[in-house]
Every structure is written in structure tokens, then in C-alpha cells.
Amino acid sequence: MSEAAVMTRGNAVVHEGDSSAVGTGRSDGRNRRAVETRRKVIAAAKAMIAETSTAPTVVAVAKRADVSVRSVFQHFGDVESLFVTVMDAIRQEIVVPPPGSSSRPLSVRIASVVQNLAEIFDKIVPLRVAAGQFAGHPALIERALASKQELRAATFEAFAPEFGVLGEPAREELADAIGAALSLDAWIVLRRRDGLSFERAMAVWRLTLTALLAHRFATTAAE
User: Fold this and answer.
1) Average model confidence (pLDDT) across the chain
2) DSSP secondary-structure letter at 204?
3) pLDDT at 97 > cutoff 50
4) Residues 6+ away with beta carbon under 8 Å from 99
5) Whether this model's pTM surpasses 0.85
6) Are 81 and 148 contained in the same domain?
7) What is the pLDDT of residue 117?
8) Residue-level pLDDT at 40
9) Top-confidence range, 28-32, 133-137, 169-173
10) Are 109 and 158 in contact (CB under 8 A)?
11) In the prediction, which pLDDT does 27 show?
């Protein structure tokens, strides 16, 4: 070690390497506290949305997370940013099952698609209802469009044999019809407005999807 690396202050000897280590330790401690605060805030907001289907206020989230209101604003800036972060966290936790082989019988694929969608949508209904007050937020619009495209692609994959025999206009029309009939908003109507049980709502969707596919191919055959 060079002489320049050791400086005396009174009776103390301070090593530059030791000073750096102290600074790093303090920084790591602050980072860990910041990460933990952020985690607690997101967890609190998720729980409150699941319980109430409304976007909680920053004050309520801070109280639930046992942190200061200032800490919430330091991490998220505003309630809209917090909501978008919570939405992304919930989306990351959702496991989307693979569509399975398109060679399976049509009735089996219909049941599988409906089951998968129903399970996913039932988990995010509270979030979607709560998002209503931020309907015009650019980040939420972007995510909604991305989800719509993902579901559309999954529909084409699940029913590849059926879509494969259709012309382009008919393919797009059928995909539009399925997307509208089996949307998150449609699921909310069945479950929240009409008060249907999970199983009964799925039965409605199986019937709807079966009818849409049958109608499209009957129309195509008649043309």
C-alpha cells in the first residue's frame, strides 16, 4: 500500500479502501431499504385493489404498507404511476398455459381456451374495474392493446385448422367476433353484472365460442 493510501487524523489511521467500504455499506443499506419499501407499497396496493376493486389513495396505501406518504411519492411520483406498476406486477404473476396441440378435437380446444381465459380474467377483474378511473392513461391503453393482440394471436394458434381454411376477410371477422365475445369486459358483465358463477359463466362462453365457429364455417360453406 502506498503512503498516499494512508492518512493520519490525530490518533486515527484512515485507509482509503476502508472508507470506500463504509460508503458502499451505507449505500447498500439504503438500497435494501428502498427495495423493501417499494415491495411493501406494491403489496399493499395489490391487496387493497383485490379487496375493493378500486384504486386506493396514496395515503391509504402508505398506511397499509406502514410507510410514510412521502416514501410512496418518492418511489412512484403519483397514484397513476403506482397503479401502472401494480398492474405490471400482477400481469407478471399470471401464468398463461400453452394453447396445446391444434390437432386435438375442436370441443376440447374450445373448453381449454375458455378455461384458461376464465381463470386469468377472474384474477384480474378487480384490477380492471379499479382501472376504470384511469381509463385514459397512456400506459394503461398501451397495455390493454398489447393484451388484446396477445389474445388474438393465441386464438389464431388454438384454432389454426379452422382459421386455415378461411379467406383473409373471414379470418379477421371471426377473430374480431371471438375477441369481442370473450373479452375481459364481457367476462366482467357475466361475473359482476349478471352475477353468474364461475362454472356457469364458462358454460356461456363455451356455447358462444362454439356458435361463432359453427356460424362462420356454415356461412363459408354456403358461399
Assistant:
1) 83
2) H
3) yes
4) 109, 112, 113, 116, 154, 157, 158
5) no
6) no
7) 93
8) 94
9) 169-173
10) yes
11) 67
CA angle (184, 125, 97) in 5-degree steps? 65
The pairs formed by 51-54 with CB atoms below 8 angstroms and a separation of 24 or more are: 51/126, 52/126, 52/130, 53/125, 53/126, 53/129, 53/130, 54/129, 54/130, 54/133
Boundary (domain end) residue, out of 70, 91, 112: 91
Span 162-191, average pLDDT: 93
Closest CA to 173 of 142, 217, 207: 217
Q: Which residue is it, cell 419499501?
A: 37
Residue 26 corresponds to which cell in the numbers above? 451505507
The per-residue pLDDT for 196 is 97
- Report how many helices (DSSP H) and strands (DSSP E) the chain contains, helices first: 10, 2
Select from 31, 65, 91 the last residue of a domain. 91
b/e 80-103 (16+ beta carbons within 10 angstroms → b): bebbbbbbeebeeeeeeeebeebe
- Residue span of the structural domain in which 48 resides: 3-91
